[in-house]
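Pilot study result, target chain (151 residues):
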Amino acid sequence: MARLLVERREEAFQSRYPRDESMRRVDAALEGFKAKGMLYETAWREESGATFLDVRFLPTRNTRAFLNTSSLVFVVLLGATAFALLAPGEPVAGRVLLAIGTLAAILVFPFVVVAFGSRREAEESMLRRRLKKAIVDEEEEPKKKGWDDED
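Predicted structure:
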């Protein structure tokens, strides 16, 4: 699961427009777009007379730090729980509370990772949609609704 948060993906979009117009359209489409759960890099290339936009989706620097810190916290929690359960003279209530807290943290962590992954996936999807709308998809004229049109 955590691997999905740190993986790097690449995607290429073939533009329907010349390079200058494509660049202008992409700049306009990305205006105001701020990604918090991922980084992205764009690069233009021409191949066989067609213009392509290559996009690399990267994890943020904080994502790897968060996962590494979480791993360290879990190791410390497991060690403290093992020590508390095996050490003589510790109060039973403290042992049980530490064990329950450690178990709860372990059980909740996958939901935290899924939340981070969902945010990244949503931002990637939004970026893909904006790019496709800007340079790949044909522009549709807005359809005027009349009284006799069905919904």
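One observation from the pilot: The beta strands are 9-14, 39-47, 50-58. A full batch analysis is planned for the follow-on phase.
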